[in-house]
TrEMBL record:
This is Outer membrane protein beta-barrel domain-containing protein. Residues 1-25 form the signal peptide. It comes from Natronogracilivirga saccharolytica. Keywords: Signal.
Length: 221
């Protein structure tokens, strides 16, 4: 049995377990973002404007969805289709979310590949409360089992964040501990009609490890 098959079976078992704990209030949502760049954890993918659609199904604390990124210049580095599944448990101390994501990079013509060079599965744990926190580790498709940790704080529409890789990782370009994703963000909803708001977001992102600075802007529909 291959590692990919084992990872997919684990993914499905998690899906079945959390689905038994959800409520009957189900909701399907569809959205799309138009971004000037696809910047993820301090790195620019595709060097191009990016269209990023998302389809989600929510039922109680359970959520499953698929997110994509498509570089408008056709750069393969900016193409991604990533399914994910998550479960959120609300507590008096804040919300805790377990999430499993299958980062998938389509081949030529949008083909869906099935090899370790095109898939990377990450398991993560997030927290939202007096601060925001996330820790994720790749369990498939990454020889280094790279880990990413991020801490953040939101004040109204402004957020600050800092993310790092705690040990050597080719994925994040670090030889040991490395700070790779530091910045601030601002979100704003522009009212177009009484029934429609246009979401706008902007982030200033600095990657100290690669010494790159990114200014990201986008709108959400």
């Amino acid at each position: 049995m291959t590692k990919l098959l084992i990872s997919k079976i684990t993914f499905l078992i998690f899906l079945l377990m959390v689905s038994t704990a959800v409520s009957t209030a189900a909701q399907v949502s569809l959205g799309v973002d138009a971004m000037n760049r696809y910047v993820w954890r301090g790195f620019d993918f595709g060097d191009s404007p990016s269209i990023q659609p998302e389809l989600n199904y929510t039922n109680g604390g359970f959520e499953v969805g698929v997110w994509g990124a498509f570089a408008t210049n056709g750069n393969p580095a900016g193409q991604e289709i990533s399914p994910w599944v998550a479960y959120t448990a609300g507590t008096d101390a804040g919300d805790f979310t377990f999430i499993a994501t299958d980062y998938t990079f389509p081949g030529p013509g949008g083909t869906w590949p099935h090899d370790s060079d095109s898939h990377a599965i990450e398991l993560g744990l997030g927290y939202e409360g007096f601060i925001n926190a996330f820790a994720g580790v790749f369990v498939y498709g990454d020889d280094d089992n790279s880990m990413y940790v991020e801490l953040g704080y939101d004040f109204r529409s402004v957020g600050i964040f800092a993310g790092f890789s705690p040990y050597e990782s080719a994925e994040y370009g670090t030889d040991g501990f490395g700070l790779i994703n530091v910045g601030l963000s601002y979100d704003y909803d522009m009212t177009i009609t009484p029934d429609f708001d246009l979401g706008m977001t902007s982030s200033l992102v600095w990657n100290p490890e690669s010494e790159l600075l990114h200014l990201v802007f986008g709108i959400s529909l």
